[in-house]
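In this section we walk through a basic example: taking a raw amino acid sequence and producing a predicted 3D structure, encoded as discrete structure tokens. The instruction is simple. Fold the sequence below.
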Amino acid sequence: MTPCRESDLRAISCTLMRGGTSRGPFFLASDLPQDIATRDRVLLAAMGSPDPRQIDGLGGAHPLTSKAGIVSRGTPGHADLDFTFAQLQPNGDTVDTTPNCGNMLAAVLPFAIERGLITPQGDVTRARVHTRNTGMLCDITMQTPQGKPRFGGDARIDGVPGTAAPIVIDFLDTAGSVCRAMLPTGNAIDTLTIPDPHSGKPFSVTATLIDNGMPMVLIRAADLDRTAREAVADLNADTVLKQRIEALRIVAGEAMGLGNVASKNYPKMCLIASPRDGGSLATRCFIPRVCHDAIGVLAAITVGTACVLPGTVAEGVAVIDAGPIHTLGVEHPTGAFTVELETDPARPGTILRSALVRTARPIMRGEVLVPSSVWPD
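The resulting token sequence is shown next.
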């Protein structure tokens, strides 16, 4: 942190990164306050929250572009890097560091090389990353020909224009990342009952409550009289559906051992249906109260996991291959997300490996200016 040339602003080094289909500033942990409350005030000021347009900060007026990353060297023998993900909201004043974000995770290694935390290892560089939010470990690999990061390439991900160099993320221990287990209730299917917000009458629906990297509630779209093929704008305008989904989310959160989730960004809600465009499953996800233009990385892995586990709401809906290595196309409003899951034939319901390909790149590096009042000397 440095003064901003005889003004009442403070300058903090950061790099604006795109990670997958998300975007936000990345900071070295050493450049931010150690006190959590002060750190959160700095992040809110940097992003321009709360304000729907985030006109006074770096935020992009959408949850996918209201994110931040904090990176430091990891503990020797455990991980090369530590990563803290922060989810902010355009019109909210909270900084949520409890969930993971697989999209922003893809930007950790490029940022670490950019800031000198990691030295490229040759034509390919791999680093083990510890996500402090949930304790999750993963191995991230990127191309570094002749010791230089490569961002141009042929990998394409839906939701990002053009192509770029692939960044491969192998997740090592995603089961029960926030909940007590992959199936936190011990069941592949549960029944959720609420007073219907529209009619007031009891309303019940079957759902799969699952966490393989992201706490999720999966519901067959047909059970809510929807198709999981609606336009995002139409779902966001569907007040009756959104009220019903939020009421179900509150009940599911309690059942998953997450307590009162009214002010939390998880569990995410996902409507599912049979695929339409050659994938494995059609989805419409809410994050948690706004319909996602795509689907999050860890949400896609968790949804894919439900497809290969016996007895979930995805059974009979999803189209999957025989395995034990399953390549799944999770369809979403702007395309499809491919994930790879390896199951153990000897232990049904056991996931041995979760992996995916993302892309990322630095967009701008410099200093973000925040009022010095949020971080007093």
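Looking at the output, two observations stand out. The chain has a mean pLDDT of 94. The longest strand covers residues 360-371. In the next section we compare this with other chains.
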